[in-house]
Design goal:
The protein is α/β, with parallel strands linked by helices and about 400 residues long. Helices cover about 40% and strands about 15% of the residues. It is built from 17 helices and eleven strands. Helix 7 crosses helix 8 (about 200-210).
């Protein structure tokens, strides 16, 4: 049977992007077969290149978000640099930008301007707070938007709020930009027209606030911060084991509680005890409930505890650190690891989570060096070697 091609084969994306939100969105497009041309500054490129040197000298953020792209370094303050972008966009299907609010419009690279000139183009503007409203011009970084969207208020312990350990606002915006591009391309297939796509980090993360937001709006009170515990379910937490590990479990209904009481805690009478028999009772008596579970699991090592919980049909997990995730047996068993090339040699990377059985596997291309494809792309838009040399001499390209 003939294998299907990647779904975005033949789609060209031009991205004036930096940091995480736009680069992570366009990396999804590249993995699915699109050609992604990344426009970077001549003086250092995407500033995420300088965040750290953890990936064998490269920045971990940059390696994560930018494989499979072609890099061209341009000075967009120079009209000749902007003209290069316009030439690239003329042959593109998608344009994505996440410059500071108003910067793209000043450069003539905002979605409205580009779509007016190219009706089939899908053009994405990613911003912190949207193009209008009192926050439109406010600086927006991931942690700040996590605070504005309320994520920090529901994350952490009762005593101390905490930001998420990943750039949740950036990732949320990236994934809505990604799905917005796909939706707009489907619409173009039926209407022949592209059009603008607007994404804001605040609106994306506010949508992800789902349960806490609706709890607060409709009940009048936000759910409490509970660390690893669940605000309205018990037992649902992490418990220490005899070997120093930590095991999480989640009891979702009273039938599961009865099995836990009998097969793990060793106290079957707790299954019908009015102080514990219902979830509402267990939440009201959370401290005593947790003590019972902690005592039982604390007598076992982590492997024994997980085996006992699995045997009782209780949802459970091992609390892993990030290094342990890199060696996770499930990821290994499903062959989810690959190597991608980079300026410092091959680097380990996860296959993207969208799997398309019967089709080509994801295209996990190289991580580009800054300006690695500048010459080739300039020649592709019709520039001669003399013109390119003049642009390099003047610092317009790198």
């Amino acid at each position: 049977m003939e294998r299907l091609p990647l779904p975005l084969e033949g789609i060209t994306v031009v991205a004036v992007e930096q940091a995480v939100s736009a680069p992570f969105a366009t990396r999804q497009l590249a993995d699915l077969g699109a050609r992604v041309i990344k426009v970077e500054r001549v003086d250092g490129g995407d500033f995420a290149r300088g965040y750290d040197t953890a990936a064998r000298g490269l920045a971990s953020h940059f390696v994560w978000c930018n494989r499979g792209k072609e890099s061209i370094a341009l000075d967009l303050k120079d009209p000749r640099g902007r003209e290069v972008v316009r030439r690239l966009v003329a042959d593109a299907d998608v344009f994505v930008q996440n410059l500071a609010q108003g910067a793209a419009a000043r450069l003539g690279l905002d979605a409205a301007t580009l779509c007016a000139a190219h009706p089939r183009l899908v053009a994405v503007d990613i911003s912190g707070y949207g193009a209008s409203g009192p926050y439109a011009d406010k600086r927006a970084y991931d942690m700040l938007v996590q605070c504005e969207a309320g994520l920090v208020s529901v994350t952490g312990t009762p005593e101390q709020p905490a930001k998420a350990g990943i750039p949740a606002a950036d990732i949320a915006a990236a994934m809505y930009a990604f799905s917005g591009v796909l939706a707009a391309l489907v619409r173009r297939g039926t209407t022949g027209r592209g059009g603008p796509v607007e994404i804001s980090m605040l609106e994306s993360l506010a949508e992800w606030m789902g349960h806490p937001l609706h709890h607060a709006m409709h009940d009048g009170t936000p759910p409490a911060r509970t660390g690893l515990a669940h605000a309205v379910i018990a037992p649902y937490d992490a418990y220490g084991t005899a070997d120093g590990g930590r095991v999480l479990l989640s009891v979702q209904n009273d039938r599961e509680w009865r099995r836990l009481a009998e097969q793990v805690v060793g106290r079957p009478e707790l299954g019908t005890d009015p102080a514990y028999a219902t979830n509402a009772a267990r939440v009201a008596n959370r401290e005593l409930t947790d003590e019972l579970v902690a005592k039982a699991l604390g007598a076992l090592d982590a492997d024994e505890a997980l085996a006992r919980l699995e045997g009782a049909g209780i949802a459970c997990a091992r609390l892993r650190d990030v290094r342990e995730v890199a060696e996770h047996p499930q990821l290994a068993a499903r062959d989810r690891w690959r190597e991608v090339e980079s300026p410092v040699g091959p680097l380990r990377a996860l296959l993207p989570p969208i799997t398309l059985p019967g089709g080509d596997t994801a295209r996990m291309g190289d991580v580009p060096a800054l300006g690695q494809h500048t010459g080739a792309l300039l020649r592709a838009v019709g520039m001669t070697d003399d013109e390119i040399a003049a642009l390099r001499r003047d610092g317009v390209v790198a």
